[in-house]
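Need residues for this backbone.
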């Protein structure tokens, strides 16, 4: 389960960066919202999987409420999922 969460968190982080960089560049600089739509749906699915898997792993990884809050907060910060992987899952 931990390895699945690591993969999902990595993919969620990549999809978030693509959405915030390429998606928003094409939308606002080139007036082409198709990239936001293209990156938005996979990011939304990965985001939901990230949240669900984090809650499911709470007991297995012995995270307290503060740790879970930080892990959930990392899902909305740029590069947050990579920090979370390094800090909480490399143990």
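Answer:
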């Amino acid at each position: 389960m931990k390895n699945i969460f690591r993969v999902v968190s990595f993919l969620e982080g990549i999809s978030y960066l693509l959405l915030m960089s390429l998606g928003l560049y094409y939308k606002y600089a080139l007036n082409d919202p198709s990239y936001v739509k293209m990156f938005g749906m996979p990011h939304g699915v990965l985001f939901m999987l990230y949240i669900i898997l984090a809650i499911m792993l709470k007991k297995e990884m012995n995270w307290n409420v503060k740790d879970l809050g930080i892990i959930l907060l990392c899902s909305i910060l740029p590069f947050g999922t990579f920090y979370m992987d390094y800090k909480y899952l490399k143990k």
